[in-house]
Design brief:
binds adenosine-5'-diphosphate; 12 strands; binds magnesium ion; Heat Shock Protein 90
């Protein structure tokens, strides 16, 4: 008996000392137990809340919804919620259903982590990156102007011409890098603020426009781009962003593929999703790189990528744009046999379950 009491005391001490908030709510929404950290995070006191309902204690609709969801579905879930107040608080919630030890049915067990500091740091980092890339725009434009102004003079001197061409190439690289970094920062910001509005649009138009924009570079490498899109497939989209994502995949397919090769861009709808595929006859990508190529600045061959004017951010941008469409991007590739990149987004259009327009 003494041993059991001692163990229970130990468990309570541990429970009270935990940095994470722990909250137990019964099927009726009544608070069965919570520790000190949970009380602090929910801005309430431990002693007075037991027996009261979660709806009375924490007037945060997101949190209440989360608890109801756990009890209804019975599964494990995770969610990030914002508690608005004098100072906004960001909480990461992890919930599961547990059987009560007193045999009184099921309870929702919620573990709460305060991620406010992390969120703030993340915002500082993001703002810094966005500001730096924005600040780079003006000097890059000025340098471009200077190179243009010097061009007639350099024509008289072969060596000066060579240096000027080198300057010009590097200014372009810097320009592309600043543009891509800014694009990613903007995407992150707009996604978080929920400002990327999706509207019904034609997937065929998007892939045709993306292909058209790369015709010039494809022709220079004698690469044929073919577009296959049966019927009028429609999906909820931000058409400029989706076009940019498909464009980035086409850019890689042309860039890394062989001269005189073929790039196929196709779209197909099924099961409420649209799959946009970009297939090339390039060198393929080794398996060990496949999980990492969507990371920022990850390149299989950094020297080759840089020599080809790549920023190493193209696929990271594709991933963010796809996520903003509530979709996913994947790749299938085999060394020596080319690659197929696939963007998958939900159709989400009324009356067009499989993405085909009803009329
Ligand atoms: N179609 C492709 N075929 C072979 N390798 C590819 C292909 N697309 C992407 N990669 C690899 O993935 C890396 C990341 O691509 P990306 O983010 O677009 O950056 P970048 O093209 O600027 O290097 C590339 O450097 C390249 O190594
Ligand atoms: Mg690229």
């Amino acid at each position: 008996m003494e041993e059991i009491r001692r163990q229970m005391d130990e468990t309570r001490t541990l429970f009270a000392a935990m940095a994470e908030g722990v909250l137990l709510v019964d099927a009726e929404g009544g608070i069965v137990d919570l520790n000190r950290a949970a009380a602090r995070l929910l801005e309430t006191d431990e002693a007075s809340v037991r027996g009261r309902t979660i709806h009375e204690v924490a007037r945060h609709p997101d949190l209440q919804r989360f608890v109801s969801e756990i009890l209804e579905t019975g599964g494990e879930t995770e969610k990030e919620v914002t508690l608005l107040g004098a100072e906004d608080k960001y909480l990461q919630l992890r919930g599961s259903v547990v059987e009560r030890t007193d045999g009184k049915g099921r309870c929702a067990l919620i573990i709460i982590n305060d991620v406010t500091r992390l969120k703030r740091l993340e915002r500082v980092r993001r703002d810094f990156v966005a500001n730096v890339s924005h600040e780079l725009k003006t000097p890059i434009t000025t340098l471009r102007g200077c190179v243009d102004a010097l061009a007639p003079l350099a024509r008289l001197d072969e060596e000066a011409g060579r240096f000027l061409a080198m300057m010009s190439r590097n200014i372009e690289r810097l320009g592309c890098l600043a543009e891509d970094v800014m694009c990613l920062a903007r995407m992150e910001h707009e996604t978080e603020a929920g400002r990327i509005l999706l509207q019904p649009g034609s997937v065929g138009d998007v892939i045709r426009n993306a292909a058209r924009r790369h015709e010039h570079s494809a022709r220079a490498k004698k690469v044929a781009i073919s577009v296959e899109c049966p019927g009028d497939i429609r999906a909820m989209m931000h058409c400029e962003l989706l076009e940019q994502a498909v464009g980035n995949l086409i850019d890689n397919a042309v860039k890394y593929g062989p001269e005189g090769g073929r790039v196929t861009v196709s779209a197909a709808a099924s099961g409420g999703f649209v799959a946009i595929r970009v297939q090339d006859e390039g060198p393929g990508i080794e398996k060990k790189h496949l999980t990492r190529i969507f990371e920022r600045f990850y390149r299989v061959d950094p020297a080759r990528s840089r020599a080809m004017g790549g920023t190493g951010l193209g696929l990271a941008i594709v991933k963010h744009i796809t996520l903003a469409h509530r979709g996913s991007v994947s790749v299938q590739s085999e060394v020596g046999r080319g690659s197929v990149f696939e963007i998958r987004i939900p159709c989400g259009c009324d009356g067009a379950e499989d993405g085909r327009a009803s009329a």
